[in-house]
Amino acid sequence: MTRPLDSLVIFIARVALSVLFLWSGAMKLLGYAGFVGYLHAKGVPFVQVGAPIAVAVEVLGGLALVLGVRIRALGLVMAVYTIVTAIFGHDFWNVTDAALQRDMVIHFWKNVAIAGGFLLLFVTGAGRISVDGARAPRLGLSG
């Protein structure tokens, strides 16, 4: 059980994490052909399967974060997804231009930090301000 302030902070964290994924997913969807081309250029395997999965994870995952639906499981899924995108999308070890490599290093570790936030959601759950919180049984004093 979480205190009301804890639930508010968890809600703010969920919304903050969701903004990045909702925006990114929408941009991928709106520029889908360019996104697929980017994945091909990065050498990502199974692009025809991976591209729609990426869009779905970002858009549906972002919505689930805001609503607080199945947050513990979602936290694990999003943590893994964020690490996978760091490896394929921010592969600084393959970049020779020093300025671009520095940028990629920053983005790689940013993704690792975001994955850490998702792991915290896995541990804390969604809090009371969520669909998960509304479903949770309440301890009452009746009886």
TrEMBL record:
<dbReference type="InterPro" id="IPR051907">
    <property type="entry name" value="DoxX-like_oxidoreductase"/>
</dbReference>
<dbReference type="Pfam" id="PF07681">
    <property type="entry name" value="DoxX"/>
</dbReference>
<feature type="transmembrane region" description="Helical">
    <location>
        <begin position="113"/>
        <end position="131"/>
    </location>
</feature>
<keyword id="KW-0812">Transmembrane</keyword>
<dbReference type="InterPro" id="IPR032808">
    <property type="entry name" value="DoxX"/>
</dbReference>
<keyword id="KW-1003">Cell membrane</keyword>
<feature type="transmembrane region" description="Helical">
    <location>
        <begin position="46"/>
        <end position="67"/>
    </location>
</feature>
<keyword id="KW-0472">Membrane</keyword>
<feature type="transmembrane region" description="Helical">
    <location>
        <begin position="74"/>
        <end position="93"/>
    </location>
</feature>
<keyword id="KW-1133">Transmembrane helix</keyword>
<comment type="similarity">
    <text>Belongs to the DoxX family.</text>
</comment>
<protein>
    <submittedName>
        <fullName>DoxX family protein</fullName>
    </submittedName>
</protein>
<feature type="transmembrane region" description="Helical">
    <location>
        <begin position="7"/>
        <end position="26"/>
    </location>
</feature>
